[in-house]
């Protein structure tokens, strides 16, 4: 009888506890009412929680009386007690107060409250909230509960501690490659003991490494192509400016990742044209036979009242998903050891699911993987069989070296075997770019891809992860493969690439698109192209149809900005040049009302002969449109990140002011996110 009573009492208590549980939903925004994505929401005293999505919305399963803790970089922590309401909306305030120093002691920590020195404050502000060692040791990010499901972000990876410093999980692949000759000794702790000694984040075991030097530190192994900023050119000496379009947007999302993580931004990681082109602009759809519309505008330069800024914008024709031709897609996925981090293969799987869910019955997908060797894990499969495709993705695991060249060879072979005439034939490569077996140098890869593109199969390149991200290599692959390059750091970015911009990512409407601008020397003394340093072409390349250039996808926009020094204006940025002895410039007044003429050449995707378009911009300076103001703010931000010589005493405050005034409709919130990034950067630089 006693046992029965106990069982009934236990059941009653359990039911009462369940009855008190409730799903809390809400929205998190800043003081301006702008939604905040990526806010960490934790149940106080527990290790589970969630994050707000791109629109600032969240869901979390709680009990009545639980305290929800809302944290976000640069904003004050907010605590909310769960009561009878199922909705908790939170407005977070900026935190200008001094930070507290976190002191790690064993696997725990203590907080020392005092006024930090300027140097200490600088270090603290450079560390993003989610990168703190304290979080790593306490396991507050692992096991996050999102929308009722538990996602263990550390998976089965052990905690590494090298020379006394705990290593964040996304750097594990680097630690595994430490030269054994540099290691003094290794201690391995199994699950139970590791968790008891080192805390929750060591629940899968802990590997303690002591090096011979005793001072090992992670070195950033990311690589970027060198960029030399474009300078002003005299119109009398160089009247033509020729370049290829660039629809890649990887630089912006990569910079966003570094700012959010509190990292130093390498100058060469900043490609201003990719930053500007990350955003949509209000360009009209084309109405004639050409696949894109042309839009030009001139105004006073926001950071220099003595110069003018010219915008040249293209808007590609937008096709609905059902209007696109059948697709023959080959996923080429890197499953080597360097892809084991949570922000690589696990994120890649989730991102590709977004793409798969949009496929139609007439679309076909194959999957090729490569590590030490390459292999086919899914033969061509109709988009109607999504479960089969998703199952193949889900079963991928990382391990081994990186035979990138072999993978590319096999992927193109499979794509060619299943080639669709008048269809969309494309290889989609997903990798961190860390090729180390076979053809791995940039030159070898470039030659391989140039040969493969002759087959009519396009190449899209998606970069994942950080620490050893090879931007220069992935950009080369995309450029030579008649494709585009994106960097995916979050599911938010995956939704943009595979959701919002699905057609542009996968369907090319014009290839080898080139732009050549001729400036009127009676109006323009000098000019400089802002960005596009690695897209410049020789003037004669413009009419040479054998010269490769960029591709334009469905719905894509391309924006180029020039800074102009008008005739009659003296500028410190323009150096004197001796008069020519044998050549004399003779200006004509026949086109006195023209500022410049811009020519475009493009080819239809299946053709080899280019088509030319010509557009003239009159000498009319007007009030800047919202689009020009915003594009200018993005360009100026990039100039500050690169420490440009043409800043003209402007500040990041100027960027912020300009961007705030030109957010416009911003229905997707990307411009508001840019404002937040600039605020974060301004907060960091003002404290240095």
Notable characteristics:
688 residues; alpha+beta
The gist of it:
By secondary structure, the chain is α+β, with helices and mostly antiparallel strands. Helix content is 25%, strand content 29%.
Query: Helix proportion of residues, in percent?
Result: 25-40%
| Helix/strand class | alpha+beta
State the strand order across the main sheet: 22-21-20-23-24-25
The chain-level mean pLDDT equals 82
Report, as a whole number of angstroms, the end-to-end distance: 72 Å
Report the sheet with the most strands, covering strand number, pairing sense and barrel closure. 6 strands, mixed
Poorly predicted tracts of residues:
4-19, 97-154
Strand residue content:
25-35%
**Overall 3D geometry?**
globular
Describe the structure.
This protein is of the alpha+beta class and 688 residues long. It is built from 17 helices and 31 strands. A 6-stranded mixed β-sheet has the order 22-21-20-23-24-25, sandwiched between helices. A 5-stranded antiparallel β-sheet has the order 16-27-29-19-18. Strands 17, 26, 28, 30 and 31 form a 5-stranded antiparallel β-sheet that branches. Helix 8 runs parallel beside helix 13 and helix 15 runs antiparallel to helix 16.
């Amino acid at each position: 009888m006693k046992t029965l009573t106990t069982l009934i009492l236990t059941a009653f208590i359990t039911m009462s506890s369940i009855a008190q549980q409730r799903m809390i939903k809400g929205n998190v925004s800043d003081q301006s009412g702008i939604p905040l994505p990526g806010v960490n929401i934790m149940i106080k005293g527990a290790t589970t929680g969630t994050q707000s999505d791109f629109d600032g919305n969240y869901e979390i399963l709680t009990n009545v009386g639980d305290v929800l803790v809302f944290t976000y970089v640069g904003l004050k922590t907010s605590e909310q007690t769960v009561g009878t309401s199922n909705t908790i909306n939170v407005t977070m305030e900026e935190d200008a107060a001094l930070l507290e120093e976190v002191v790690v002691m064993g696997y725990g920590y203590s907080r020392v409250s005092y006024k930090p020195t300027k140097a200490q404050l600088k270090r603290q502000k450079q560390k993003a909230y989610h990168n703190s060692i304290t979080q790593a040791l306490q396991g507050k990010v692992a096991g996050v509960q999102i929308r009722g499901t538990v996602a263990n972000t550390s998976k089965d990876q052990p905690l590494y501690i090298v020379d006394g410093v705990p290593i964040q999980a996304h750097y594990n692949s680097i630690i595994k490659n430490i030269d054994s000759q540099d290691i003094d000794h290794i201690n391995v702790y199994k699950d139970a003991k590791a968790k008891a000694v080192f805390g929750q984040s060591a629940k899968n075991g802990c590997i303690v490494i002591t090096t011979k030097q005793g001072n090992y530190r992670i070195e950033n192994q990311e690589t970027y192509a060198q960029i030399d900023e474009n300078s002003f050119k005299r119109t009398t000496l160089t009247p033509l400016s020729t370049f290829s379009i660039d629809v890649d947007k990887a630089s912006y999302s990569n910079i966003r990742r570094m700012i959010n993580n509190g990292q130093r931004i390498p100058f060469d990681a900043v490609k201003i044209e990719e930053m500007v082109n990350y955003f949509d602009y209000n360009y009209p759809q084309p109405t004639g036979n050409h696949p894109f519309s042309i839009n030009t505008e001139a105004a006073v330069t926001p950071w220099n009242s003595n110069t003018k800024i010219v915008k040249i914008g293209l808007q590609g024709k937008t096709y609905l998903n059902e209007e696109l031709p059948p697709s023959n897609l080959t996923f080429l996925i890197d499953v080597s050891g360097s892809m084991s981090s949570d922000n690589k293969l696990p994120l890649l799987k989730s991102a590709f699911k977004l793409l798969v869910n949009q496929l139609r019955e007439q679309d076909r997908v194959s999957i090729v993987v490569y590590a030490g060797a390459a292999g086919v894990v899914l033969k061509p499969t109709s988009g109607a069989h999504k479960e089969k495709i998703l199952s193949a993705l889900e079963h991928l695991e990382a391990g081994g070296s990186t035979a990138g060249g072999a993978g590319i060879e096999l992927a193109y072979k499979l794509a060619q075997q299943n080639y669709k005439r008048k269809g969309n034939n494309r290889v989609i490569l997903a990798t961190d770019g860390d090729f180390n077996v076979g053809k791995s140098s940039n030159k070898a890869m470039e030659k391989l891809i140039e040969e493969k593109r002759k087959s009519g199969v396009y190449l899209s390149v998606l970069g994942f992860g950080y620490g050893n991200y090879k931007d220069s290599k992935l950009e080369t692959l995309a450029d030579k493969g008649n494709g585009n390059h994106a960097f995916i750091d979050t599911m938010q970015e995956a939704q943009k690439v595979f959701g919002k911009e699905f057609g542009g990512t996968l369907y090319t409407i014009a290839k080898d698109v080139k732009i050549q601008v001729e400036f009127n020397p009676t109006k323009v003394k000098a000019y400089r192209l802002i960005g596009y340093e690695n897209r410049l072409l020789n003037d004669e390349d413009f009419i040479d149809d054998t010269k490769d250039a960029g591709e334009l996808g469905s719905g894509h926009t391309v924006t180029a900005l020039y800074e102009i020094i008008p005739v009659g204006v003296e500028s410190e940025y323009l150096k004197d040049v001796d008069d020519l002895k044998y050549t004399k410039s003779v200006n004509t007044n026949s086109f006195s009302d023209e500022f410049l003429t811009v020519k475009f050449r493009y080819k239809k995707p299946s053709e080899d002969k280019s088509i030319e378009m010509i557009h003239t911009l009159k000498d009319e300076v007007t009030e800047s449109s919202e689009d020009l103001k915003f594009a200018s703010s993005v360009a100026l931000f990039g100039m500050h990140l690169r420490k440009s010589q043409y800043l003209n005493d402007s500040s990041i405050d100027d960027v912020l002011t300009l961007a705030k005034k030109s957010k416009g409709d911003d229905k997707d919130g990307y411009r508001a996110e840019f404002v937040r990034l600039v605020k974060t950067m301004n907060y960091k630089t003002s404290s240095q």
